[in-house]
Design brief:
Length: 380
């Protein structure tokens, strides 16, 4: 099956065409690209962006479309075939993800308008975390906030965490249903997930993707009292939102949010100038993640593996080392040479005397979405 995978953002549209039946050893990605700055110039909306994609596709056959949808709320616990009712249901979840779901819906409607007969499937970032028990997803706030407004912990990056859990189980030669692990998905957005029996039992992101780890421009965990203080000081909700989502995290601590630049500034070579702010940013982010790993080691009843994935997790040996060096109480140790190795393959980077293996497993959300499309459309 030839699947067009769409990741529709507020001002961009990423796409990839995959052959789900590609022979082993061949490249399953037939085409890929990104349309940026939607809303500016000639690309005024997502329908116009789909026109750009269609032009790039040319005569390429497409059998189905898979959409990454950020928030599925409590309704969607697995990928679903899209129809008008499903589209409206996703749209009703817009208040829970105002930066993401509206763009996802625009992408769905644009495909429906351009190719009305093409089957479409929605794959939800939140779905994998629906296995969390109430003790993990419930906030200690008045019940009506949950029953009336849906305020609870949902978790995100679920498509990535599920895919990586499966690949890690293969590497460890065990069924995914027997995998207890902690996965650290570290990119500009970052989250940690506790995997028990192959299922998510806790995750660091909550009602929104803002909760949890220090991220590129997001603050992660902060005292809620700070928000009340800022409001009393005259900050508007929009100003606080921008501050916490776009101007915090590594950007606030180091003055930039590119991990490569931060590492270079914190560990200068060839006489470069040492940047104390960059080192502090690394220390804060690594410490926050190490605390989550320790907590999730308890949550899964003893992790059998620690897994790093996504851009930073896969590529920054320095950050991985900073995190693992704080896990001595768990007996976790890295093999320095293996940690520095550059590879696109899943691999073990821990030393032989580490209490549990440490893995690097590249994520592939587009593949996971394409596989989900095949599975959904194969179901009667």
């Amino acid at each position: 099956m030839i699947v067009l995978v769409i990741n529709s953002g507020s001002s961009s549209l990423k796409y990839q065409v995959r052959d789900t039946e590609a022979e082993p050893g061949t490249n399953p990605v037939l085409l890929e690209g990104i349309v940026e700055r939607i809303g500016e110039g000639e690309v005024s909306d997502h329908a116009k962006a789909l026109g750009v994609v269609a032009h790039h596709l040319g005569d390429q056959r497409i059998d189905a479309v898979g959409h990454r949808v950020v928030h599925g709320g409590e309704r969607f616990s697995e990928p679903v075939r899209i129809n008008n009712e499903v589209t409206r249901a996703i749209e009703r979840l817009n208040p829970l993800a105002p930066l993401h779901n509206p763009a996802n819906v625009l992408g769905i409607r644009a495909i429906t308008e351009k190719w009305p007969e093409l089957p479409q499937v929605a794959v939800f970032d939140t779905a994998f975390h629906r296995t969390m028990p109430p003790k993990a997803w419930r906030y200690a706030v008045p019940n009506e906030l949950y029953t009336m407004h849906g305020i609870r912990r949902y978790g995100f990056h679920g498509t990535s965490h599920q895919y990586v859990a499966g690949r890690a189980a293969e590497l460890l030669d065990r069924p995914v249903s027997e995998l207890n692990a902690v996965i650290a998905h570290l990119g500009n957005g970052a989250s940690a997930t506790a995997i028990r029996g192959g299922q998510s039992v806790d995750t660091s992101m909550g009602f929104t993707p803002l909760e949890g780890l220090v991220m590129g421009t997001r603050s992660g965990d902060v005292d809620p009292g700070i928000l009340l203080f800022l409001q009393r000081e005259g900050f508007t909700a929009a100003e606080i939102d921008t501050m916490l989502n776009r101007n915090s995290g590594l950007k606030a601590l180091a003055g930039r949010n590119d991990m490569r630049e931060i590492v270079e500034a914190a560990y200068p070579e060839d006489g470069g100038k040492y940047d104390g702010d960059a080192r502090l940013a690394l220390d804060v982010a690594a410490y926050r993640l190490a605390k989550y790993i320790g907590g999730y080691h308890v949550a899964v009843g003893g992790a059998q593996a620690l897994i790093f994935t996504a851009g930073i997790g896969e590529n920054s040996d320095t950050f991985r080392a900073l995190v693992v060096e704080q896990l001595g109480a768990l007996g976790v140790k890295l093999d320095e040479a293996a940690n520095r190795e550059r590879s696109k393959q899943p691999r073990v980077i821990s030393s032989v005397d580490s209490a549990i293996p440490v893995l690097v497993v590249p994520t592939d959300e587009e593949r996971a979405i394409a596989d989900a499309v095949v599975a959904v459309l194969a179901t009667p």
